Structures are given as C-alpha cells and as structure tokens.
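for the writeup, i need someone to sanity check this before i put it in the appendix. the sequnce is what the collaborator sent (i think, or maybe the updated version? ugh). structure was predicted straight from it, no edits. if anything looks off just tell me and ill rerun, i have time this weekend
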Amino acid sequence: MNKDKIFIFLILVLFIVGFFIFDIPRTIFVERGNFLTDLIQKKEPFPVKAVYSTFITAGSDRINYLIDLINKTELNAIVIDLKDYTGRVPFETSSDIIKKIGSEKIFIKNINELIKKLHKENIYVIARIAVFEDDYLPRKRTDLAIKRLNGGIWEDNNVLAWVDPASQEVWDYNLEIAKEAIKVGFDEINFDYIRFPSDGNVSDIIYPFWDGKTLKKEIIRQFFEYVNQHLKPLNIPISADLFGLTTTSTNDLGIGQWLEYAAPYFDYICPMVYPSHYAPMFLGFENPADHPYEVIYDALRRGNERIASLSVAFPEMPMAKLRPWLQDFNMGAIYDAKMIELQKKATDDGGGFGWLLWNPRNIYTEEGLVSE
C-alpha cells in the first residue's frame, strides 16, 4: 500500500514539473489557431477563407483592420499583391534579375516582419502575382511587349501594357518573384492574369514571341506546366485565377484559359465566379448578379464534374481543387451580408474547397461572415 502511495506521489510530482517546464497547458488545450498553424506547417490542404489586400494596404496601418477582421470571424487567410497590374514589386528582394529590371517600389518596408506578424495571428498568407498584364516590364523591356501593328506598345482599355504570354523570359521573371515570396515566408503562390488579352483592340496586336499558330490554350498550358515544374519541388501550394466562365465554357474564351489544361498543374483553381460578370440571360437570368447562389453553384458543380472526368481519364495525376473568388463589391446588384452568405452556401453546396473574397478597396462586409 505504501509503495502504491509513493508511486502515485511520484507521478503527481512528474506531472507538476512537466506542467511548468514543458508548458503542458499549451499542448493540451489546442486553440483553433494552433490547429491551423499545424496544417500550414505540414502543407496539408484545408479550406482557406481569405480576404484580398493590395500591397498599399499591406504596407500601412490598414492591415490591422484586416487582421482584426480575420480574428473576429471565420476567415483564416489573406491574399496580398506582390505584383499587381502596375508591374511593381512592393518589397526589397535579393534577386539580381528583379533589381536589374528595376521593378521594385517599396510599399511594404519590412515584409519579413509583416509575415511574422500574420503568422503569429495564425493567418495563412498567399502571395498574388499578376503575370502577363504588367504595365512596368513591357515599357522597360519593349522587346517583351505586345505591340501594335504600327510598332508602338499595345494597351488595353485601361491603358495598361501586356507582355507576350509565350515569352519564357517573362515566365522566368515571374517565377523569380514567386521564389522571393517563398524566401520571406509566404505560404502559397497565386497567379493571376495568366492569359492572353481580352479587352481593347485585340485585332491591332503583334506578338514578338507567339507564332500565331500554336493554340493560345496550349501556350498557357505550357506556362502552367513550367510553373509546376519549377515550384512543386519547393513544396509550396500553388494556385491559378481563371475566368469564372472557364468552368462552363466549351472553348478557351479566346484568352487561352481551358480548365482541363490548368487542373493537373495546380493545387487550387480559383475561378472568378463574380455573378456581376456573367452576361444577361446566363442560366436564363436577366441579371445574373441578382442570383449569386444559382450562378456560383452551377459554376462549381459543372467545374467539379469536368475535373472529376479528368481524374478518371488520368488517375495517376493529382487534380486541383476548386476554390472560387467571391464578390464583395456592388456591381449589378447591392452585395450585402445576405449576398455574401448566399455565395458561401453555393460554394459549399457546389463542392468548393474554401473561398477568397474580393473587394478592390479591401473593405469587407463583416456581417456576411460567421463570427468566431
């Protein structure tokens, strides 16, 4: 009996010592954030629920509004521009290639501290890179620029220049930015504007590298494959933003985006299924923006069916999950809390794996998000 008491006493002593020395409370009582951190460190997929941030917001005190919003709600991630349509890289890199181009313009003064701050709040951080729409690179390196028939730099309806999607040097430059993002601690790389131009006088274009014969969707597929080959060995998730219509269209929309040519090369496909961007009478609706649930549910259901068919045809190839961009801005209709909720429900019902909220001013409808 005495031996039993001594044994129990020793166990209690060991527990008390461990309680204070090894911080047992923290290891026993795992909070939501620690669970998320574990998933990130293990590179395990989880449903991202993110908001978008410009690099101007990310480099200012306004980032604290987004951090607070994420902490108060179901959100768990943020997408930050590391190259937007301006073509500027907003942080100091260690890349000779980027420095030679001269595209750095510092908006985020200490990006390492920013990433540490976000990670401390258990926030998953995604770097967004706009690829072929780039108003800086083609003006600095005109040999890479899409040109007009008269030889000048071609511009779209927003007076923005583009680089030739068939240029491997352009591919390498954008991969250089991606690798710099990985160095400073981003958890995922997201590529946008991975297409040929769609607006502006596209009949007045000369491409310096594209031969005009190879299908546009094959050029873009080659880029996707190139990205996969160079970034997958680095063990970091990669994602691609596509037009929302890519999940339902039977062609490449004239821009080279074809769902089946993207799914094998990325972890996530992020179709921009903004209901306001669908034409009148889509699904029979005079104003699709008034019907966010129906538009998004149909887009994801049909997109997932196509990816499932691709998986059957190529069972040895892992396929991307659909993780859509959702609309949190007024266009075509007032997008209040109810409209946000309908989009999220459509995403869940349609088989989406998380979602990303877009508002160009980075002001979000908190009432449409579940409070934590």
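The chain has two domains: 1-30, 31-368. The mean pLDDT is 91.
thx in advance!!
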